[in-house]
Known about the structure:
single chain; alpha+beta; Aminopeptidase
Amino acid sequence: xxxxxxxxxxxxxxxxxxxxxxxxxxxxxxxxxxxxxxxxxxxxxxxxxxxxxxxxxxxxxxxxxxxxxxxxxxxxxxxxxxxxxxxxxxxxxxxxxxxxxxxxxxxxxxxxxxxxxxxxxxxxxxxxxxxxxxxxx
Length: 137
């Protein structure tokens, strides 16, 4: 399949972000101002854009030193299963490999059934006593 989207290092607008969240069954952020603050405090964001519409995104949050979290890897259902999530994660991993110091903790919360997707990037499931996944740089 020919790739019909661009990957752009940008923050989605609050409405674009809310639309993506709703499309995958996540709740809207109740306070749009909080969503705006959160998005704008991201360390890194990448959006997939097709026909001037954001169809996917991913971001990195954290303290820029010890802790990083991969957050909000979201792809509109219509575009899932076509490698778009992988393309977004590839860019995020490139960012982390360039910016995270050796020994930094990189965490994420994988949606149910998606841990295998993140394992290919070196993330490991946490023991059954805790949710999420992690990777040490």
